[in-house]
């Protein structure tokens, strides 16, 4: 199995799932759209929504939810996410196959800029506050470094394995 994933039984409804984790955004790096996210930009939205209020979508399509984010937090590097890709869904199974084969590992955020300003002497926009709606699995992330990362081993009690 490729880095960034771990099989487990979903906590809800006993549905099979693939555990995924990675960085959906990294601070102080410019993306392909000219945005640079500042440290602390997600704080207000995460305080209001929490992980359960941020959707996991396929390719930013709101009609295609494919999992659940269990953990979303800012750390020193950026916005770290961890969740369950629901492989009981046809699309979830397809995404899991692509991820485990190494064909897909991109993450991307769907948001509205609350506080932003042009950076002096450049065309870049610094995002100081973001209203985060969703984090998607994508083929081509706008921020190239936003990728799935290795998932730490789970204890047998968390996975249901002996």
From TrEMBL:
One of its GO terms (molecular function) is peptidase activity. The keyword Endoplasmic reticulum does not apply. It comes from the Bacteria. Pfam families: Peptidase_S78. One of its GO terms (biological process) is proteolysis. Keywords: Hydrolase, Protease, Viral release from host cell. This is Phage prohead protease, HK97 family. It comes from Pannonibacter phragmitetus.
